[in-house]
């Protein structure tokens, strides 16, 4: 049970006790919130319940606080309970209990921080899902990091998580891609075949076409355009997706499922779902096109699902079938889509779609991640290399590395615009938060190695010796991780992780500066052992935090 849950239960028992005794009047059901006070002198946790009850009970909140605080049952976790003006009940954690948590962390090990709020519910996190028409550019990196880290957090919170990439292999953009690939293939074979209009003009397709000619030969040259394109397309798609997969893995991103849009048509699901909506009079025909009647569900305008003139399904049209498949065939309890800023206008229509399906809209959550601006040496960096194609994720990784990318992209909430400082990300100094956090982990590993070299065993230690302010503050920080995981999972906000990591690294720095850990002096041996256990627990917690962010936890730097 979380600390806050335990304290809330104790407050509830105290409230029931004073109401039963007649010291306080009945007040009905009330939510008990346990929070951290703004000032450290007010304890570790606090509740403002007396302020909430004051109107109902028609009493001064300080009187209510005094009655509740005096009735809180004894518990090993609680060292002191106090009431404070204007109406707070403040809790200070027991020193003995805090000391015992060092052993708890070490015994739980790499699973420390896990909670069970998910209760095994199955959740799908779909992210990136870029059209497979070329390399991933830097604009896709933030969503990749947010989605993969969120999936990690949800797993740690007890959810059964599936990570999915939706491959748009059946739309108009892919037709343009295949037409361009054919032209480039013919050009590579020495034939003057102009690019289609529209076309993908970047270098990537020139390189891909040359590779296909080299690997597959020139058999397609003698075929008509349709047959040649049909021959080249599958291999072009396969190689483009392989490159996307490779680059994402360099960023620390992997998937459980790659779902192909074409399956929606091959299985007939697209037609079946449209028929269901037609039966509900939510598909209308107008101007030669088919429309989703979103105005019947409260939106200001209807949405095209099949274009006029044989233009085929729109993105929203296939999204209808795709999300029906997620909820009704694969039966996900929740679906989370991480989309780019250009999809902001799609949120309302997806909520309307959930209504049309008879599904609680809260079961679908769309996270919009905003644009990232890059700077270097204080100057804005414009990515426009190679015929105006955005610089790729791979080039960014070559510049700063995967760990820096992940930490920095995670450091702000998705809806916030952010600046990525390339110079800072590459610096090997404490000003760089990535370096600072990873160095803190490496330092803890180094301390443990020194103890091992000096043959100072610390599997058993007297943890009651940990009474220094910095030691207890560090323990308080370590045991926050389960609450951070729970909050991140419930709010779908993985950006709490890098902030926790920084706070923990700062606590470690203060501890390290104030408390000598390894000592060979006989009179200091026992405190060394206790502090080594604390260091080892800190290593566990910081390592787990880095892992949840998808980062490495270096043992040497």
Give the terminus-to-terminus CA distance.
37 Å
Would you give the CATH topology of the largest domain? Rossmann fold
The number of distinct helices, counting runs of at least 4 residues, comes to: 21
The largest beta-sheet arranges its strands as 6-5-4-11-12
Task: Specify the CATH architecture of the largest domain.
Answer: 3-Layer(aba) Sandwich
Structural class estimated from helices and strands: alpha/beta
Mean pLDDT across all residues, rounded? Answer: 95
Strand percent estimate: 5-15%
According to CATH, what is the class of the largest domain? Answer: Alpha Beta
Q: How large is the radius of gyration?
A: 29 Å
Residue stretches low in confidence (pLDDT < 50, at least 5 long) are 385-390
Helix content: 40-55%
Major sheet details: 5 strands, parallel
In the CATH hierarchy, what is the superfamily of the largest domain? HUPs
The number of distinct structural domains comes to 4
For the secondary structure, the number of strands is 15
Shape: flat
What descriptors fit this protein?
21 helices; five-stranded parallel sheet; 557 residues; flat; 4 domains; 13% strand; Rossmann fold; four-stranded antiparallel sheet; Gyrase A, domain 2; alpha/beta
Structure overview:
Helix 6 (172-188) crosses helix 7 (203-216). A 5-stranded parallel β-sheet has the order 6-5-4-11-12, with helices on both faces. The chain has a 4-stranded antiparallel β-sheet with strand order 7-8-9-10. The protein has helices at 3-21, 49-57, 61-71, 95-108, 141-156, 172-188, 203-216, 225-250, 262-266, 269-279, 315-329, 346-357, 385-388, 393-400, 402-410, 422-426, 433-453, 469-478, 481-491, 496-514, 525-548, and strands spanning 45-47, 78-84, 88-93, 122-127, 160-167, 257-260, 283-286, 289-292, 303-307, 312-313, 334-340, 364-369, 372-376, 379-381, 418-421. The longest helix has 26 residues, at 225-250. The protein has 557 residues and is of the alpha/beta class. The chain folds into 4 domains: 3-93, 2-Layer Sandwich (Gyrase A, domain 2), CATH 3.30.1360.70; 122-167 and 257-369, 3-Layer(aba) Sandwich (Rossmann fold), CATH 3.40.50; 172-250, no CATH class; 430-548, Isoleucyl-tRNA Synthetase, Domain 1 (Orthogonal Bundle), CATH 1.10.730.10.
């Amino acid at each position: 049970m979380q600390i806050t849950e335990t304290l809330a239960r104790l407050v509830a028992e105290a409230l029931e006790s004073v109401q039963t005794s007649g010291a306080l009047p009945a007040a009905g059901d009330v939510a008990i919130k346990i929070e951290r006070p703004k000032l450290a002198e007010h304890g570790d946790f606090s509740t403002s319940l007396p302020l909430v009850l004051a109107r109902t009970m028609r009493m001064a909140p300080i009187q209510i606080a005094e009655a509740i605080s005096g009735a809180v049952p004894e518990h090993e976790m609680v060292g002191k309970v106090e009431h404070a003006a204007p109406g707070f009940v403040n809790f200070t954690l027991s020193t003995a209990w805090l000391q015992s948590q060092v052993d708890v962390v070490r015994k739980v090990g790499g699973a420390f921080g896990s909670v069970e709020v998910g209760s095994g519910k199955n959740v799908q996190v779909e992210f990136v899902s870029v059209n497979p028409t070329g390399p991933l550019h830097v604009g896709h990196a933030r969503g990749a990091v947010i989605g993969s880290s969120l999936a990690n957090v949800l797993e740690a919170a007890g959810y059964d998580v599936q990570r999915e990439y939706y491959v748009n292999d059946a739309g108009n953009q892919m037709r343009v891609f295949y037409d361009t690939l054919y032209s480039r293939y013919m050009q590579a074979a020495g034939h003057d075949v102009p690019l289609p209009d529209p076309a993908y003009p970047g270098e990537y397709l020139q390189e891909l076409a040359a590779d296909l000619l080299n690997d597959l030969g020139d058999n397609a040259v003698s075929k008509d355009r349709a047959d040649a394109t049909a021959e080249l397309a599958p291999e072009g798609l396969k190689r483009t997706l392989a490159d996307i997969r490779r680059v994402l893995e360099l960023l620390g991103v992997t998937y459980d499922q790659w779902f192909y849009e074409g399956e929606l048509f091959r299985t007939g699901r697209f037609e079946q779902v449209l028929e269901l909506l037609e039966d509900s009079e939510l598909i209308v025909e107008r101007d030669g096109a088919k429309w989703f009647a979103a105005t019947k569900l409260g939106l200001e305008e209807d949405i095209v699902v099949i274009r006029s003139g044989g233009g085929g399904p729109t993105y929203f049209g296939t999204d209808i079938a795709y999300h029906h498949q997620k909820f009704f065939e694969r039966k996900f309890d929740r679906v989370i889509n991480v989309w780019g800023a250009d999809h902001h206008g799609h949120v309302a229509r997806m909520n309307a779609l959930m209504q049309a399906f008879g599904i609680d809209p809260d079961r679908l959550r769309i996270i919009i991640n905003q644009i990232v601006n890059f700077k270097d040496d204080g100057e804005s960096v414009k990515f426009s290399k190679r015929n105006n194609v955005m610089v790729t994720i791979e080039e960014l990784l070559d510049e700063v590395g995967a760990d820096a990318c992940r930490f920095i992209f995670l450091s702000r909430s998705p809806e916030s615009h952010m600046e990525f400082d390339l110079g800072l990300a590459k610096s090997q100094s404490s000003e760089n938060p990535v370096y600072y956090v990873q160095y803190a982990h490496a330092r803890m590993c180094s301390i443990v190695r020194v103890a091992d070299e000096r043959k100072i065993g610390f599997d058993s230690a007297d943890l009651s010796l940990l009474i220094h302010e910095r030691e207890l503050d560090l323990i308080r920080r370590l045991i926050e991780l389960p609450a951070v995981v729970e909050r991140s999972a419930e709010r779908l906000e993985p950006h709490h992780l890098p902030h926790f990591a920084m706070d923990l690294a700062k606590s470690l720095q203060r501890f390290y500066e104030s408390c000598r850990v390894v000592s060979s002096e006989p009179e200091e041996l026992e405190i060394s052992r206790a502090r080594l256990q604390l260091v080892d627990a800190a290593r566990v917690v910081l390592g787990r935090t880095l892992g949840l962010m998808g980062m490495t936890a270096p043992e040497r730097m």
